[in-house]
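Hey, resending since the last one bounced:
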Amino acid sequence: MMQESVKNRIFECKLVRCIDGDTLKLSIDLGFRMTFVDNIRLIDIDTPEMNTTSGKAIKALLVKKFSGEWDSNRMILESSKHGKYRWVGLVHIWDKTNNDYLCLNKWLVSEGYARSYKV
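The structure tokens again:
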């Protein structure tokens, strides 16, 4: 049997809405004028649930950042697999302040808003 190498697929995408601290609804450009809208879980991180004060605060912070410093129309999704209930991946956002892409997953952990984990 031939073993197939699975690499991350990279897609341009736009934010539809922030669901919570570690889940975004994205409009994903599949190419050939085809888009796909789905919830994307940020891989390898966990933020507080929305029924907590911290969870609500993190979502509010993300909404504010997407409305200001970050360009919600200039994002990249790097995904290679489907999680238990939804697609998972790394999300890179254009940071207007630094004129560069920022990995949202890593930023949330480095700023103390999420904890890192591996399944």
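Strands lie at 9-20, 23-31, 34-42, 45-46, 70-82, 87-95, 100-103, 115-116.

Sorry for the duplicate.
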